[in-house]
Amino acid sequence: MDRRNFLKATAGVAALTGTTGVSAPALSQGAAARTLRFVPQANLANFDPIWGTQYVVRNAAALVWDTLYGFDDKLEPKRQMVESEEVSSDGKVWTFKLREGLMWHDGTKVTAADCVASLARWAVRDGMGQMIRTIQEELVAVDDRTFRWRLKTPYPKMLLALGKNNTPMAFMMPERLAKTDPFQQINEYIGSGPMRFVRNEWVPGAKAVFSKFEQYVPRNEPPSWLAGGKRINVDRIEWIIMPDPATASAALMNGEIDWWETPLTDLIPSLRRNRNIRVDIADPLGNIGAFRFNHLHAPFNDVRARRAVAMVLNQEDYMRAVVGDDKALWQTLPSFFTPGTPLYTEAGGDVLKGPRNVEAARALLRESGYNGQPITLLVGQDQAPLKAMGEVTNALLRSIGMNVDFVATDWGTVGQRRASKSLPGQGGWHIFHTWHAGADCINPASYLALRAHGDGAWFGWPKDDAVEAARDKWFVAPDVAAEKAAVAEMNTAAMRHLTYAPTGFYKTYQAWRSNVTGVVGAPIPFFWGVSKS
Amino acid sequence: MFAYIVRRVLATIPVMAFVALFVFSLLYVAPGDPAAVIAGDQATPDDVERIRASLGLDRPFLIRFGEWVWRILQGDLGVSIFTNLPVSTMIQQRIEPTMSLMIITLILAVSVAIPMGVVAAWKQGTVIDRTVMGFAVLGFSVPVFVVGYVLAYVFALELDWVPVQGYTPIKQGLWPWFRNLILPSIALGTVYIALIARITRATMLEVLQQDYIRTARAKGAGQRNILFLHALKNAAVPIVTVIGIGIALLIGGAVVTESVFAIPGLGRLTVDAILRRDYPVIQGVVLLFSFVYVLVNLFIDLLYTILDPRIRY
Q1: CB A216: neighbour CB atoms within 10 A?
Q2: In angstroms, rounded to a whole number, what is the distance separating the alpha carbons of residues A123 and B210?
Q3: Crossing angle, helix B279-307 and helix B2-29, to 10 degrees?
Q4: Is the CB of B27 inside 8 Å of chain A's CB atoms?
Q5: Is B270 an interface residue toward A (CB < 8 Å)?
Q6: Within an 8 Å CB–CB cutoff, is residue A206 touching chain B?
Q7: Which of B33, B37, B41 is the mutation pick for testing A, counting most A CBs within 10 A?
Q8: Is A66 on the interface with B (CB under 8 A)?
Q9: Is residue A458 a contact partner of residue A290, using CB atoms and an 8 Å limit?
């Protein structure tokens, strides 16, 4: 019995034998009800959401720092810190007015100057921000509550840029923090969001604590993801880092924690059997599994070799390896975009549909000039989805006659090696695996992984003018119909070029105690509206 | 004796210097890039490069090593690349849980294993001996995490006597502190108990064959006196040696135990730092562990002179 099966069995027995008795929380009942204990997806190792763009940092930052706009559950940017905005008739001048009553956690007022400095820092690190910077004429505070962004050319996606939930999000910080070099970490964690960060209780790798900011004035609208009134119903939120899923499962069953963001799929059946626990999809936007080709080196610098691999790629194999047989969790994806979202398209996705053809793939691979050289396949063994996908890809490549050099390593090493443009036999690589949050793939705005502009593109450095041209069309699209057309064109071009190989769309579960209410499925765990009895 | 202690303490300096050079070199050549981890998946290669430069990771080996050694000599372990906190602060945050776990495990292991070993030797070949040795084999064979899960299932989930996980600082009360450490120390101590019990038994068997034991019996000394005063005292040196060596075993086992029981100790800090390539933290923790290990060995050597007056330095 291996470790994974052992923990499944232990958790299963625990659930079956009815571990449903009254728990013995460490806190008194009253205090416990005002403290929400949450196990996040990963360790909060740093806390500057502009400097470090890991999702866990963004998720924690959403509690502490507010945004000018926020995405709602219909994926539309809505006003958050902003009271009103005005755009000039030529689309080049945006004027924003902050709502009244906004305060920093140190008791000072939020001013337009703070927002100007925050946007300046964010724009250095964010893809959309960088686009705005290239057309920026000036970004200035007009008065205490008003600031203006004057551009050389119109930028219709301005509100999307300011309200998106992709990292790095446009979080507002006090001017003195926002003036920090974007490539250096801030040293204070003062925001204007609904929770304060309790720095002296922060033990990186173990615990992060947030306390309710009483002076926070929520909007009047009902909460909807990052939009609406962010009303906090508990006094304190404790993020408890638990590296071991069996421990987290047992702690949830025992009432020692209240909410677990990413339970291991294997443990879901035992959690479901516990009547004190609720289980549901964590993020309806899910994730897109992927592996990336190195477009710089043979054989994958030839589209025929990439296409040969795609011809035998069976997404069902990948998805079953990643999340198992629970069909509620995955679907095949002949697309680069997130299913169920307004711009989703399968245009050009035929290469990933229908029966797989090994013989035709072998022939195409021969035609591409592949001569049996080793294919360096990087597989991070410490990330379960990547390990699973790596095994499937290994079998897939071998099935069409490729000579695979399977490099089993940790994610830290993959992170370094994938940046190398050297020849695969000299420290470089041919293929590595990753996944993209579905929230990042709803449109081309922050979809760095799909860009194909050569040297500046994401690892693998794909280059295809048609992909880039379609992307440019989306940015200037005047309406939804034009946006859809541009995305369809981009998907078609990227499928033809095989910018990367999507391995399917999958979701994960979250679990919480039944005395906790208001948990919603979203790309970020939102704490506003969550109560604990 | 004093001169010996001074000599040994001075001898730790080249040992620590070697450890420092070794760890720094190892991390320098090891693959992995903290800048890539910090930048996240949405970052471009240019972003990663700029972060690497801002962290000073693009500078030559000798400059980085020289700066690090200079800071160490001033008592500064540096600042974590990720948390921006001083490494000394991070170690300070984590040292109490690990020390607590190790001390309780040590006390538990010694107080259980030595009587077990002594009794097994005394009752050699009997059911008691076989039971003790059976336990020892089991203790060696079953991984710490399996023992941990089983204990957590039975005593936390089923019986609800103790919490499944976590750590309560000692300042919040002796019982809450101890309550959280019962299961982890049993889990971690199992292999240690097995090791000490086996060594105690083997050494005792050898000592019990000695002439002076026969003499003691002939003089009419009681069994307890023979076992614990005459035999155990003379068997103590190898047992103490194993206890000392076992400290390294405990440090290694603490990494797994702390993960299974979600204890925020140095073991987890080390693993997290290694996975993220947080070089200053790895270097600081390894130096600390090495220093502790050297001190424990010094202490054990000094203990020999008390246990066996024939040993003189």
Answers
A1: 20
A2: 81
A3: 150
A4: no
A5: no
A6: yes
A7: B41
A8: no
A9: no
Nearest to B47 among A125, A187, A415 (CB): A125
DSSP codes of every residue in B56-101: TTTS-HHHHHHHHHHHHHTT---B-TTT-SBHHHHHHHHHHHHHHH
DSSP count for chain B of H helices, then E strands: 13, 0
Phi, psi of B186 (to 5 degrees): -65, -45
Q: Residue A24: its pLDDT value, please? A: 39
Q: Are A77 and A160 in contact (CB under 8 A)?
A: yes
- Chain centroid to Cα A127, Å, comes to 15
Tell me what ipTM this predicted complex has: 0.84
Do A254 and B157 lie within an 8 Å CB cutoff? yes
Distance CA A305, CA A294 (A): 11
Q: CB-based burial of residue B16 (10 Å sphere; 0-12 exposed, 13-18 middle, 19+ buried)?
A: middle
Residues sharing a CB contact under 8 Å with residue B60, sequence separation 6 or more, in sequence order: none
- CB of A250 within 8 Å of a chain B CB? The answer is yes
Q: What is the mean pLDDT of chain B?
A: 90
pTM of the model: 0.88
Q: Nearest residue on chain B to A245, judged by CA atoms?
A: B260
Cβ–Cβ contact B260 with A under 8 A:
yes
Neighbouring C-alpha atoms within 13 Å toward the C-beta of A348: 22
B residues 126-185 closer than 8 Å to A (CB): 143, 145-146, 149-150, 152-153, 156-158, 160, 163-166, 168, 176
Q: pLDDT (tens digit, 9 = 90+) per residue, B39-55?
A: 777 677 788 888 888 88
What phi and psi values does residue B58 have, to the nearest 5 degrees? -95, 5
pLDDT tens-place string over residues A517-530: 999 999 999 999 99
Would you call B153 and A251 a contact, using CB atoms and an 8 Å cutoff? no
- Confidence class of residue B12 from pLDDT cuts 50, 70 and 90? confident
Percent of chain B exceeding pLDDT 90 equals 52
B259 vs B263: CA distance, rounded Å: 7
Distance of alpha carbon A212 from the chain centroid:
26
Q: Are B199 and B238 in contact (CB under 8 A)?
A: yes
Beta strand spans in B130-273 (E): none
